[in-house]
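Running log. JK asked me to keep both predictions on one page so they can be read side by side. First protein, sequence followed by its tokens:
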Amino acid sequence: MSYEVEHNIPKNEPTPRHPVRPDLSTFFSNLELVNTSTTQNTNATPMPADVRAVFTTLSDAFRTMRQEGGGGLLDSLIASLEAEADNPPREVQGVSDAFLDELDRVPKKSLKQNDSCPICGNPFLEGKLILRAEQNALISSISQQAVDKFPLVVQLPCHKDHIFDLECIAPWLKLHATCPMDRKNLLLKKLPPPPPPKDEEEDGEYDEMFA
């Protein structure tokens, strides 16, 4: 009996094809040269060529992802990155690693089956078929995100529905402190609500005295 028959795996069943995240090692190497938040670069001004390179490498990576059929948000991100590569800023205005670490994780139970990352287009929850070459057998394996109670899906503080794969949103946020969907600055703290008018405070105290 074949492995497929034994494990009730239909033969020749097409495996869903999702965009593969490109290798970002070159991007992160370039980022080290322009990241002024690190100890060795605190007082350094990045070279314009290095700043241009970091925007270009991320644009190229997103373009590769787009060719694989990534999310609809990619076109606007690529356009922004290319514009910044053509006219690079003096410094990269991204978030810190600590900011990324403190982003709210989205628990698995709050994700719907058809929810997907706006950048890569991959579903947050999915089962994957993995070919084990050493055994030459097709086995069913649930992806780490599907079994992890708190998968690497994060929510940005600007809106409860702005959720992303951390692997996709982190490179963007290392270059921009803004949400890629509404472009709100994520480092600006929300202002506390204004105090009530003085007349209302006095009325409230008066009512309490005679309640």
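And the second, directly underneath as requested:
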Amino acid sequence: MMLTTTLSSAASPSPAKRTEAQDTVVVCQTMDALVGSFTPEPKLDIQCCIKGSSPPPPPKGPSWPSCQQTLSCTFDLIQKSSISDRLAYVRYMESHFFSGQLKSGTQFRAIEGVITFFQSKGLGGAGTWVSYVDSGIVEAIQRGGAIALGMSSATGNNPGTEKWADFLHEMQTGSLGSRDAHDPVWSRSEQAATEYGKSRGDSEAQPASTQDLRWFQFTQLFRLIMRNRSVIIHSIQAFFIFTDPPLALAASPFINWLTDVTDIKPTLCGSAVAWDLSALDTPIGDGILTDAKILAEIIPKFYECYKNR
């Protein structure tokens, strides 16, 4: 009687509703019950009956593109993705993560413009120096967003991450309402992320071409203008007042448009201008930013972008 009761209580639920794994567990429970009914010895470990059992495999790291849903893509995953995928990811972050509580749904249109330019020129493929520089920027924006949203604390050792997180926090609180407050913070965040991507590229990527390096220096001008907007406007007014009066008179709205990160057009056109000038025999190095002759050539070309906007 005791044996019948033991077997009956161990064998549930009905076999028709059990899985193979559940059947194995029920068999083990039944054997344990049988042994316990005939001897006072300790019950057998349930694992005695599971043949060939092994621990579950360790969890996998983030993979592309599922990592996008948690803003956890690594630098390497981003770097190995296509330029079109990166562009789609930036737009996805803006619309799904940054447009709500962070109030930053349009804050990375300037990045969209640069990546769109890369796409149009076939630049930035995986393994290239340009790809590494770009990946440093995209990774930092992503990780900064994750920190600002409380989704993660990982920086990826990218110095731009915490700067973007701080920027997004300040956007959320409304403390970057003016261009004078906003532009330097945005620029320094991008600068840190860009320098990180460049350092990775310098040591790990295919060697940068001369045109790549010249183009990079021209992009430094964009960030310099953002950090010194008022000074640049006054300098343009003084420099071009006799040689190009319309440019001098339009200096303020022109520079405000050129450095508007919520618009894709300035960086799309500006990147093309800088790339074309980079093909010329211009010097490489920080001198590009202080060479009056080069600035006198590139500023009017940027102004053409403004007039054709």
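Observation for JK regarding the second prediction: The chain has a mean pLDDT of 83.
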